[in-house]
Specification:
This protein is of the alpha+beta class and about 300 residues long. Helix content is about 25%, strand content about 30%. It is globular, with a radius of gyration of 18 Å. It starts with 7 loop residues before the first helix and ends with a strand.
Length: about 300
């Protein structure tokens, strides 16, 4: 049963209604904010979902050993898989992005996870500025789980990045963090300024926040949450880290990622989410997918496949 979350800041932050288009002067499309000779770029992808004005912001990118995405397989087999797709880079690495979903409703700005943080090279704040959004304008941050690439951007040196934002945090994930401070102490420190300011609201599976519903997605971390956005007859599943590398995760959903706390459970969650998206034809968004990270999951025989949305 869905449980409405009641909190003044929350209701203000999620008061979904007709959306303005004052931030970006273009329609659906890509804005490249800056680039350099190394191929690094800040970018925003703008699209609509029902009554929502949505943005995807490329926060940061990096390379990882490809074997990380098949931790329960022979490394050479994982390398061969990525090489067959022409995705294997020098040093047996594959590229990985951090993409942050943002929803706008007039003066309300909702950010899904806070990214790496400016001190770690994250471009969330600078890209929001490109879209005419100051840190003080963000009214809500919805956190999915504790991993640093999702929580580092909550605060910098004890100062909240988004000082006026209500921070929604999974209750189960917070309980886990408190039980293992030696593991999750960094994330706790990033969240602490929001706790001190009494700006944190904890939520659980099935809780609703306006047009947003939280969906338990354990395995990657014990309390990770995915999200269903439903507005005006349009839906989107935010897969967060249930699907890390989209190519490995769709072709081999039974592969474990090195970052998964419970690989078997993560695989079960992944199959459940991908099956839902494929059977119901729901658009998906991936935090670590190739930019801008939106598209559809389809069945190719008995194998999942990701079809990027055209832009």
């Amino acid at each position: 049963m869905n449980t409405p979350i009641s909190r003044r800041n929350l209701l203000k932050g999620m008061g979904i209604s007709a959306l303005g288009a004052s931030v970006l002067s273009v329609g659906n499309g890509l804005i490249v904010a800056q680039s350099d000779m190394m191929g690094s770029f800040n970018a925003i992808y703008n699209f609509t979902l029902g009554d929502w004005e949505m943005m995807v912001i490329k926060d940061v990118g990096f390379g990882l050993d490809a074997a990380i995405f098949g931790a329960n397989q022979e490394a050479d087999d994982v390398y061969a898989f990525f090489e067959s797709l022409n995705l294997l880079q020098e040093g047996n690495t594959v590229g990985m992005l951090v993409n942050i979903l943002v929803a706008r409703n007039g003066e309300n700005v909702i950010v899904f996870d806070a990214g790496q943080g400016a001190s770690n090279g994250g471009a969330l704040v600078s890209s929001l500025a490109t879209a005419g959004i100051n840190p003080e304008d963000v009214t809500m941050v919805v956190s999915s789980h504790w991993h640093p690439d999702h929580t580092n951007g909550l605060s910098e040196d004890g100062v909240l990045t988004f000082p006026n934002a209500a921070v929604m945090f999974p209750q189960g994930e917070f309980d886990f963090m408190e039980s293992v401070p030696d593991v999750a102490g960094g994330a706790l420190a990033k969240l602490q300024p929001a706790l001190d300011a009494e700006q944190v609201t904890f939520y659980g599976d099935g809780d609703t926040m306006g047009d947003l519903t939280a969906m338990a997605a354990p395995g990657h971390t014990p309390g990770q949450m995915n999200f269903m956005l439903d507005s005006g007859g349009s839906q989107l599943i935010h897969l967060v880290d249930s699907t890390l590398n989209v190519y490995a995760a769709t072709a081999h959903p039974d592969w474990h990622a090195q970052f998964d706390a419970d690989g078997d459970m993560a695989s079960e969650t992944r199959i459940r989410m991908l099956t839902m998206a494929a059977e119901e034809g729901i658009m998906v968004f991936g935090y670590h997918f190739p930019f801008p990270g939106i598209g559809y999951i389809v069945m190719d025989g008995d194998v999942f496949r990701f079809n990027p949305a055209a832009f």
